[in-house]
From TrEMBL:
Protein name per UniProt: MFS transporter
Gene that produces this protein: emrB
Keyword Transport carried by entry: yes
Similarity comment: family membership: Belongs to the major facilitator superfamily. EmrB family.
GO MF entry, a single one: transmembrane transporter activity
Length: 509
């Protein structure tokens, strides 16, 4: 009958449509939360009495927690069942969203964002798995198209939603809006998906590898986030964090290579194509994600943009990506994927070069146009690179390789954000020092004094202009560095062998 579970675990009729909508909405919400806070950082920083650079911890903490939890998804699903893990993850995501919105200190907010990331990490691959379980094989292409569309559209709407909510209500609501979505998805999952549950078995988990993974990643991220404030390695605490991160990473490598069932299967790195593809992905995605964090902060702190308009300017990067994704999907089977990836990453580098010419007198479209242009290159980068990476490993290693790739991509985004924010802050200080050393203040003092400004007012005006220009110079330096990294990522992809077999990219997430 229509709406009943068919043999093989598939749904049909209205139940299939509703279940697909629930899973698509879940994926949309989880991806949305990776970008919705980007434009809200100045609001949150002002409310909690912290610096904007400290505010980026809200973004990096979520990304790191999500990255740590992704490798556990397969074990969790096998041990407790796909649907049970999905339901518990949704409930946890909703509860931590409530706590994020209620946070009154930076520590509480970061802790709750970590909880959000731990619960949300498995949801993205689980929605993919469940879509493939409830749709018949002949409908898998449509199912993955639905999933991919939410993955592409969510980052576009994230900055717009975050800016609009922060300006018109308060930043707390960027988290509270998850509550009705979580409630709806949990209800829908309980009613529609329980019959698609997978069998469970007692599986061993690589506890040592997991502990080492958490240890070195936590030490590294804390070091990157706190280093600037503690004068880096002139601080004993930062030195110890660096030692723990380095030693922990080396022990983790040795452990995982010798472990029979590793939490992160490092054996896939024996394939040159996979290794090179992941290096290119990590550098390019770290640079791309860092710019998505820095641009809205700069527009609000230096250019006087509201969070809403900063969101509009940032979101243009996803508009062209929506239209180009189907084109790239068709070209992937006809054109050498290395050429597509190289062209796409170089295109991202070109958009970064255009930003090098930004100045404090530029208008909205000067800022929005490179974002729009960037969107044309994004699908050429992400889609063929997945094909290259997964096509380089053995068919039975595809799931493990996809998990490793997702883990490293997410970690790269968090680490790239921390490093670029630190470079941005240091470049601002250097630029300010150079501007001040070359200033001739007497003509400005005389001109403004003639217009009735007091000496203190003149100093205030000059200081504000110096701060604005130094921040702008630092921002353009970041984009010049970004362009160089994009060129590097585009070049090394040619060390990857061309795939010799068809690849099932549905394993990627």
């Amino acid at each position: 009958m229509s709406g009943q579970m068919q043999r093989g675990g598939f749904l049909s009729g209205p139940s299939l449509i509703l279940a697909g909508a629930v899973l698509a909405l879940t994926n949309f919400m989880v991806v949305l939360d990776t970008t919705i806070a980007n434009v809200s950082v100045p609001h949150i920083a002002g409310s909690l009495g912290i610096s904007a650079s400290q505010g980026t911890w809200i973004i990096t903490s979520y990304a790191v927690a999500e990255a740590i939890c992704v490798p556990l998804t397969g074990w969790l699903a096998g041990r407790f069942g796909v649907v049970r893990v999905y339901i518990v993850g949704m409930i946890g995501f909703g509860l931590f969203s409530v706590l994020c919105g209620m946070s009154t200190t930076l520590g509480m907010l970061v802790a709750c964002r970590i909880g959000q990331g731990l619960c949300g990490g498995p949801l993205m691959p689980l929605t993919q798995t469940l879509l493939l379980r409830i749709f018949k094989p002949s409908q898998h292409a449509q199912a993955m198209g639905l999933w991919a569309m939410t993955t592409v559209v969510a980052p576009i709407l994230g900055p717009i939603a975050g800016g609009t909510i922060s300006d018109n209500w308060s930043w707390h609501w960027i988290f509270f809006i998850n509550i009705p979505v979580c409630a709806l998805c949990v209800f829908g999952g309980l009613r529609l998906l329980t019959r698609a549950e997978t069998p469970t078995e007692k599986l061993s988990v690589d506890k040592g590898g997991l502990a080492l993974l958490v240890l070195w990643i936590a030490a590294l991220q804390i070091m990157l986030d706190l280093g600037r404030e503690h004068d880096w390695f002139n601080s004993t605490a930062i030195v110890w964090l660096g030692v723990v991160a380095a030693v922990g990473f080396l022990i983790f490598l040795a452990w995982e290579i010798t472990e029979k069932n590793p939490i992160v299967d490092l054996r896939v790195f024996r394939h040159r194509g996979f290794t090179v593809s992941v290096i290119s992905l990590s550098f390019a995605f770290a640079t791309f994600f860092a710019s998505a964090v820095i641009i809205p902060q700069w527009l609000q702190s230096s250019q006087g943009y509201t969070a809403t308009y900063a969101g509009y300017a940032t979101a243009f990067s996803g508009v062209a990506a929506v239209f180009m994704s189907p084109v790239v999907a068709k070209l992937s089977g006809k054109v050498d994927p290395r050429l597509l990836v190289s062209a796409g990453v170089l295109w991202l580098g070109l958009s970064s070069l255009l930003r090098v010419y930004w100045n404090s007198q530029a208008g909205f479209w000067t800022f929005a146009f490179p974002q729009l242009l960037q969107g044309f290159g994004m699908p050429f980068f992400f889609i063929p690179l997945t094909t290259l990476a997964l096509g380089s490993v053995l068919p039975e290693e595809t799931a493990s390789a996809a998990g490793v790739m997702s883990f490293l991509r997410t970690m790269a985004g968090a680490i790239g954000t921390s490093i670029s924010t630190s470079i941005w802050d240091n470049s601002t200080r250097v630029a300010r020092s150079e501007i001040v050393s070359r200033m001739h203040t007497d003509p400005t003092l005389n001109a403004l004094s003639a217009q009735g400004f007091s000496v203190d007012q003149v100093r205030s005006v000059v200081a504000r202009l110096v701060d604005q220009e130094s921040l702008t110079l630092a921002t353009t330096h970041i984009f010049l560095l970004s362009a160089i990294i994009f060129v590097f990522a585009a070049g090394i992809i040619w060390f990857t062998p061309r795939p010799t077999r068809a690849v099932d990219t549905s394993a990627a997430h």
